[in-house]
Amino acid sequence: MNKTILTAILATTTALTALPAMALDQISIVGSSTVYPFATVVAERFGRGTSFSTPTIEATGSGGGLKLLCEGIGENTPDISNSSSYIKQSQYDACAEKGIDIIEVKIGYDGIAFANSKNGPKLDVSQEELFLALAANVPGTKAGELIANPYQTWQEVNPALPNVAIRVLGPPPTSGTRAAFVELVMHQGCAKTPWIKALKSTDKNKYGEICDSMREDGAFVEAGENDNLIVQKLDADPDAFGIFGFSFLDQNSDKLQGAAFNGVDISFDAIADGSYPVSRPLHFFIKKQHIGVVPGIMEYVETFLSPAAQSDDGYLAEKGLIPLSGAELTEMRTSVQAQKVMKM
């Protein structure tokens, strides 16, 4: 046998046997707590409806999931990472350094709810008001002046808001929901102050420092990756607010209400037509090197993008996901079937 061919065969065999026995039988999925309920229902249907084992899914947060995905190939590393925020350049680079090719799969859209108990006041807020309520430092009276956040009640931020103490439960920095909230709310509200907006082109680091930093004085509390726990706390405390994906609000609509943004209430239709301003796409990312080694990966993706899952009256819409449709869904199916590797 040709020595070069033999070497290649031995290398391939070594790479495949490096994967643990369980990984060869069962897809391993980690990542976003927002995507978790959607992935779980697909995994259950996939396990019942095919000859493959039901995938294991762990809610580690978007950042934690991508970190695990990019640790290497085989050796107890996951096959797929769910994410409620788009992969960052640094995360992509971490995968590339380990020789990992990533296939991107967009699965639909979700709104970020700012919600509280139905026994509490319903808010109609703007991104600027939420920035002023939650930022560690806010603009002072002079251009270029920053002061430690002095606001203690919503009424102090805007006299039209209720005289209730600011208390918000939100996700940690590793969460994709936190990243999306910072981008879609904090940055948008931050940029309403002209001199801060100007920093985006003159001093990006300073701009990010101002717009990204959340209060640490008790007004904003990192409540972990478990969105269900936040829901329970809001039900017990009518004056507190929480930040999480629309699906969790939708599943708990008997207890909770979402705040409106600039007069637009969060709803399935408002997210789908783009009128609700705080919405984002949801994804998962596949480790291409595990396709064909861990059985069922492509079949799992096909289940996720199937008409039964992705139609307006499909089982994912029932869970609160705004599904892909039309050309966007066709394009995603084509890209996945071709196993197109993403580039950044």
Summarize the structure.
With 344 residues, this protein is of the alpha/beta class. The chain has helices at residues 3-17, 21-25, 36-49, 62-69, 89-97, 127-134, 154-157, 176-190, 194-202, 204-212, 227-236, 246-251, 268-272, 297-304, 307-310, 315-318, 326-337, and strands at residues 28-31, 56-59, 80-83, 102-117, 124-125, 137-139, 146-148, 168-170, 220-222, 241-245, 256-258, 260-261, 279-287, 322-323. α8 crosses α10 (204-212).
Tell me what the structure shows.
It is built from 17 helices and 14 strands. α3 (36-49) links the parallel β1 (28-31) and β2 (56-59). The longest helix is centred in the first third of the chain and has 15 residues, at 3-17. It has 344 residues and is α/β, with parallel strands linked by helices. Strands 1, 2, 3, 4, 8, 9, 10, 11, 13 and 14 form a ten-stranded mixed beta sheet that branches. The protein has helices at residues 3-17, 21-25, 36-49, 62-69, 89-97, 127-134, 154-157, 176-190, 194-202, 204-212, 227-236, 246-251, 268-272, 297-304, 307-310, 315-318, 326-337; strands spanning 28-31, 56-59, 80-83, 102-117, 124-125, 137-139, 146-148, 168-170, 220-222, 241-245, 256-258, 260-261, 279-287, 322-323.
